[in-house]
Amino acid sequence: MAKLNRDSVIAEALDLLDEVGLDAVSTRQLARRLGVEQPSLYWHFHKKEDLLSAMAEAAMAPHAAAPLPAPSDDWRNWFAENTRSFRRTLLLRRDGARLHAGSMPAGKDLDRALQKYEFLVAAGLPEPDVRTAMLATSRYTVGSVLEEQANAAPGTDHEPAFDAGLALILDGLALKLRA
Which domain of life is it from (predicted)? Predict the structure, then answer.
């Protein structure tokens, strides 16, 4: 077996998540899959919460690679597409929204969030409204994906329903811009 490293543990943990769901992910099961004793995992993650946090960060990598806004971008189109990218990324993993819920951006992710914030303020949106809109769309997206992944509304065409709710948020933000 190859030497155990942080990235391989996270990758295997995400594969396990996709197979069994968040509630069934355990360090015991992960160690078994990696062919190591459970205490070996503690070299990389002191507790399960640290592993879950690293998994959440890794699961968001596709969204973290999405383009940052350019000064010439239309704020509304960019914000809508960025939010859709966030949704698509959460949907890539079984229980992706549950895994992500409660996580906070740090490091490069925090820098990216600040660049997005600054872009929206530079577009003329009031700072308090930008903070509120970024938080509201994040919570709306996570909540929508939570419901979708739980199949809480069978028969719902989730993408158009999501876009309709997102449009309402963006319409409200546009009103603030015109005020």
Answer: Bacteria
**Average pLDDT of the segment spanning 17-45:** 94
Are 66 and 109 spatial neighbours (Cβ–Cβ below 8 Å)? Answer: no
Q: Give the tens place of pLDDT for each residue, 34-93.
A: 999 999 999 999 999 999 999 999 999 999 999 999 999 999 999 999 999 999 999 999
164 in helix, strand or coil? helix
Q: Which amino acid is at 150?
A: A
> Are 123 and 75 a contacting pair, CB within 8 Å?
yes
**Alpha carbon distances (Å) from 21 to 53, 79, 101, 102:** 16, 30, 15, 17
Task: Of 39, 34, 38, give the one whose Cα is nearest residue 2.
Answer: 34
Cβ neighbours for 63, distance < 8 A, ≥ 6 positions apart:
85, 86, 88, 89
Q: How large a percentage of the chain has pLDDT more than 70?
A: 99
Other CB atoms within a 10 A radius of the CB of residue 39 amount to: 9
Residue 80 to residue 167: CA distance in whole angstroms: 8
**Residue 121: both structure tokens together:** 């303020």
